[in-house]
């Protein structure tokens, strides 16, 4: 394969089998120049993307220290082994960039707290577990004390890549909606939903909300039997009123219209929390 451009000493743009690709490997760009041939055995990983993705990867590799890219590669390899599946290749761009940016902040004594951490841990448990491993790996390998908050950010990248997405916007929106709903419930019931005695009910609620969000995104709603729905409205009147406030929140803030039939399920979960407090 022929080198088209040296990005850094560990990454080069090549022309191979009629396509432009980014070849990555320790020392592949060292003392190389345009039109030099590259031995395939030196390549550790080859990236084939659409032109826009390939251009973003080139820019990234020319701007960040390659140690962050290689650390990201190790995290992705570990994640793919644990999950038993391939992740969307675009994760290399977003996660490498995030890790490099986070490292710079930490070295400048800037700690960015993750306000969605609890919800991310509940909603994306598999990804969060891998992200915890990643934080320890980064701290040990780079000698930079990555915080626990970073596990949440890394988990978002992993979840998006598992879903085949090229960016994190949908995952972040999903977690944000759940977090906003839980915050409203906390205010209405005057409770700390993260209290240990509420951990099981909190986990159930968060996972119900995730499925709830998926349903209204796909216009597929879960409905209670009319008789049961009316019984819930009467028996759990306080919790049902809170579920109606959630309905208003979703419409005003996120422009999601939730049918009344869904409110009964929400009220049942809220009632569990109300009875514990």
Q: What report would you give on this structure?
A:
One of its GO terms (molecular function) is RNA binding. One of its GO terms (biological process) is regulation of DNA-templated transcription. It holds the Pfam family PRD. Keywords: Repeat. InterPro entries: BglG_antiterminators, CAT_RNA-bd_dom, CAT_RNA-bd_dom_sf, PRD, PRD_sf. By secondary structure, the protein is of the alpha+beta class. It has 3 domains: 48 residues, CAT RNA-binding domain (Transcription Regulation, Sacy, Chain A, Roll), CATH 2.30.24.10; 102 residues, Orthogonal Bundle (PTS-regulatory domain, PRD), CATH 1.10.1790; 104 residues, PRD domain (PTS-regulatory domain, PRD, Orthogonal Bundle). 61% of the residues lie in helices and 8% in strands. A 4-stranded antiparallel sheet has the order 1-2-3-4. The longest helix has 21 residues. The radius of gyration is 23 Å and the shape is elongated. The mean pLDDT is 87.
Topology as H/E string?
Answer: EEEEHHHHHHHHHHH
Number of helices: 11
Principal-axes geometry comes out as elongated
Q: Largest beta sheet: what is the strand line-up?
A: 1-2-3-4
- The fourth-level CATH homologous superfamily of the largest domain is PRD domain
> How many domains?
3
Major pleated sheet: 4 strands, antiparallel
- Gap from first CA to last CA: 66 Å
Strand content: 5-15%
Question: Structural class from helices and strands?
Answer: alpha+beta
Q: What share of residues is helical?
A: 55-70%
Please give the CATH class of the largest domain.
Answer: Mainly Alpha
The stretches of 5 or more residues where confidence is low (pLDDT under 50) are none
- Any guess at the CATH architecture of the largest domain? Orthogonal Bundle
